[in-house]
Design goal:
alpha+beta; 2 strands; elongated
Length: 90
């Protein structure tokens, strides 16, 4: 981070955290989908069937719960609003 202007370092750190959280959750969503469904190729078509393992879509909502507030904080930081206006918006 030493090459980044000091006023943007916190926002850039938040960007990294958001990216890590999203990456983790989307890998978990993918793994849950792979476990929950079986895909077979039948000729030129594909058939998808349920494997019996439940698909956990809660990862998507946990991701949103964590990343959306962080992205809003990042937006406020990047806008460089005066302290009073920042407090009024948060």
């Amino acid at each position: 981070l030493p090459n980044v202007t000091k006023s943007y370092r916190t926002a850039l750190t938040i960007t990294g955290i958001v990216t890590w959280i999203a990456t983790y959750h989307y890998f978990r969503i993918f793994n849950s989908w792979v476990a929950a469904f079986e895909v077979q190729q039948a000729g030129g078509d594909y058939a998808v069937s349920v494997s019996g393992t439940p698909f956990n879509d809660a990862y998507r909502y946990v991701d949103w719960l964590l990343t959306v507030p962080l992205l809003l904080i990042e937006l406020i930081l990047v806008m460089k609003l005066p302290a009073g206006e920042t407090a009024a918006l948060s």
